[in-house]
Design goal:
Layout: E1 3-5, E2 10-15, E3 18-23, E4 26-31, H1 52-58, H2 60-65, E5 69-70, E6 77-78, H3 88-104, H4 114-126, H5 130-145, H6 149-157, H7 160-164, H8 167-177, H9 183-186, E7 194-198, E8 211-216, E9 219-224, E10 245-247, E11 268-270, E12 291-293, H10 304-307, E13 314-315
Helix pairs in contact: 4-5
């Protein structure tokens, strides 16, 4: 039996022609296959990107030609082991090399398929591996920031986002993925159309209302961020061009950005009970605005610019 020790936590063994990953001598996972086989004669035949996941996504045609993968009608189908181009022993040492490179590069999840890298990193964290524990959240955030849809869907659907990020971090991720109204392309399909809440921890020993987010056709149309202790207006919000209702009351916001005028579909705006002394001229661009709350700020008189909004029917 071939055996290779990656580090004090990970060992690979070749058992009955299969590569098996052990963590602290406990069987964890059987490696299915080596996805990519690059010929020495054609080292440039693959288009490489930021991660192995993207390599697989972008080079499906080559994977099919190598008889490791095929994709009829857009679905990946595993082939039988008889079609593998390498022997089990060669495949074993290939897996050993990949896992060793992953470990030597501080468990960089871009170097393995996501369905191996993250479960393995989670299990190492459960076993108390210091490095794994310290970088798991960092890897989740980094891969979400890549905007690569398959990895975003995986991290949301497999609960890595919900289990390892706090509520404010989740909100930040959602807003970031919404840049330039791109949520319809980047956000997981199961969250294309729904209203959901992100529960919040106690602030100043009192229970706060949850963050409310409404998504229609993959785009955020309603957002509630009341009592969030926000000192600044989140700039990312101004890129949510499908937004119709925005609540930001009971925060500590002192100024509103000029880019507020980008929210041309906004119908309801609650910026009451903040520390505002004025509103930007660009607010007149919000021609669909019907309701606005500005009381509880340091604005003494109702600005004339607000009175110029034609559809405004409620001002508080």
């Amino acid at each position: 039996m071939d055996q290779f020790r990656i580090n004090e936590y990970i060992t690979l063994k070749l058992e009955a022609g299969k590569t098996v990953i052990y963590i602290r001598n406990i069987k964890f996972m059987i490696c299915k296959r080596l996805i990519i086989n690059i010929s020495e004669d054609e080292p440039d035949s693959y288009k490489f990107s930021d991660s192995i996941d993207e390599v697989v996504e972008e080079n499906k045609h080559f994977l099919y030609k190598n008889q490791i993968y095929e994709e009829p009608e857009g679905y990946l189908v595993e082939e039988s082991t008889s079609q593998y181009l390498i022997k089990p022993e060669e495949e074993f040492w290939g897996h050993c090399s990949n896992l060793q490179a992953w470990a030597e590069n501080n468990y960089d999840t871009r170097l393995l398929r996501n369905n191996l890298a993250f479960p393995l990193l989670k299990k190492l964290t459960d076993f108390g591996a210091p490095l794994a524990k310290s970088i798991l959240k960092q890897e989740i955030v980094k891969r979400l920031a890549s905007r690569f849809q398959p990895i975003i869907e995986y991290l949301f659907n497999e609960h890595y986002v919900w289990d390892y990020l706090d509520n404010e971090e989740i909100l930040s991720i959602i807003l970031d993925l919404s840049d330039y109204d791109a949520l319809i392309d980047a956000f997981p399909k199961k969250y294309k159309e729904l209203t959901f809440q992100i529960g919040r921890s106690n602030i100043h020993d009192r229970i706060m209302d949850p963050i409310n987010i409404a998504i229609v056709k993959g785009r955020i149309v309603e957002l509630t961020l009341d009592s969030m202790d926000l000192n600044e207006f989140p700039e990312a919000i101004t890129r949510l061009t499908a937004l119709e209702k925005l609540w930001l009351s009971f925060n500590k916001i002192k100024t509103l950005p000029k880019t507020l005028g980008n929210l041309k579909k906004l119908k309801v705006l609650d910026i009451g009970h903040n520390l505002l002394t004025e509103v930007p001229d660009s607010i007149t661009n919000l021609t669909l605005l019907e309701e606005i709350w500005i009381s509880g700020n340091q604005i003494n008189n109702i600005p004339e610019k607000i009175k110029k909004i034609r559809n405004l029917c409620k001002l508080n």
